[in-house]
Design goal:
Arc Repressor Mutant, subunit A, about 190 residues, about 65% helix, Rna Polymerase Sigma Factor, Chain: A, mainly alpha, 9 helices, about 0% strand
């Protein structure tokens, strides 16, 4: 019997949790897919599988960690089947704006523009930790990667974030951008 056959369909409570997570999952799908159209297709496919019980057991995982992991698994499966184009390096900066923050000015637009230029693996690891508030361990479970790999990706992302924000005319502003990112993470976790 396959693993999918062993999983159970979501309960009504879990379906409600999934509905609540949809904006965050859509944002993560955009991070993976690189644009809104591909993100929407990815989220539809992953949501359908999640409603049927998903690819992996939910046993012992927080629901949001499981759901993000299912989305990541669907994206990887789609890459293998060439369903979802993988945009290397560049993403749609609008995808990286926090929900409801599109009108909040330059701070978020600057962060989103830098995130759009990060390599996809670093971008997804950094945004799971700093954007979605997951611990490094939870991000490692979602990405199905070793903890030290996720920590290295986040570290490299922050290094690139600093380097891209620091130009000769803006010396020291990269550290300020990282502080903005960390403040944003703290605000989102409240």
């Amino acid at each position: 019997m396959t693993e999918m056959a062993q999983t159970q369909a979501l309960s009504k409570t879990e379906r409600n949790k999934l509905i609540t997570l949809l904006p965050r999952l859509r944002r993560f799908a955009g991070i993976l897919a690189g644009n809104r159209d591909a993100a929407d297709a990815l989220l539809r496919a992953a949501s359908k599988k999640m409603l049927d019980g998903g690819r992996q057991s939910r046993q012992g995982l927080a629901f949001d960690v499981w759901a993000f992991g299912e989305l990541q698994a669907e994206w990887l499966a789609g890459l293998r089947e060439q369903k979802y184009p993988r945009l290397q390096g560049q993403g749609d900066a609008v995808t990286f704006l926090p929900a409801g923050a599109s009108g909040e000015g330059r701070k978020f637009r600057d962060i989103a523009a830098v995130l759009a230029r990060l390599p996809p693996q670093q971008r997804s690891a950094a945004l799971l930790v700093y954007g979605e508030g997951f611990s490094y361990d939870e991000a490692a479970r979602i990405l199905d990667a070793p903890l030290h790999t996720v920590m290295a990706r986040v570290s490299r992302a922050l290094g690139l974030f600093i380097a891209s924000a620091d130009g000769p005319e803006r010396a020291g502003s990269g550290e300020a951008k990282v502080e903005q990112l960390q403040q944003t993470k703290r605000q989102m976790s409240r």
